[in-house]
Amino acid sequence: MPNEYESMARALMGSPQGAKIFQTLDKLSAVCASQNGRQLIAMLAGSGSDALRQAAMAANATDKDPARVLVSNLLGTKEGAALVAKTIEVIGV
Questions:
Q1: Domain ranges of the chain
Q2: How far apart are CA 75 and CA 55, in angstroms?
């Protein structure tokens, strides 16, 4: 089985979709290496991850529009709002 998965992975990475994955990873690497990216990673490693986890748990527990529940819960905490603000700053939205 591992050889089968390796073959599938090689085929994907050699395709146009695979090239897009590599481009995206290159962009992500550049963002993570920046000062803002490092600050975002530090936030995720600290209390920001707790806020994100709690918001995700609330979204998972609802049948109504989980995306809105996730964002609402995330923005409802100081740590979550800071995490969202830093994410927006880093990705330039």
A1: 1-33, 35-93
A2: 9
Q: Which of 84, 81, 80, 91 is nearest to 37 (CA)?
A: 91
Three-state SS for 2-69 is HHHHHHHHHHHHCCHHHHHHHHHHHHHHHHHHCHHHHHHHHHHHCHHHHHHHHHHHHHHCCCCCHHHH
Q: Which two tokens stand for residue 3?
A: 């050889």
Backbone conformation region of residue 92, classed left if phi is above 0, alpha if psi is from -120 to 50, else beta: left
At residue 14, φ and ψ (nearest 5 deg) are: -90, 0
Residue 85 identity: A
Whether the Cβ atoms of residue 17 and residue 67 lie closer than 8 Å to each other: no
pLDDT digits (tens, 9 = 90+) for 31-56: 889 998 999 999 989 888 899 999 99
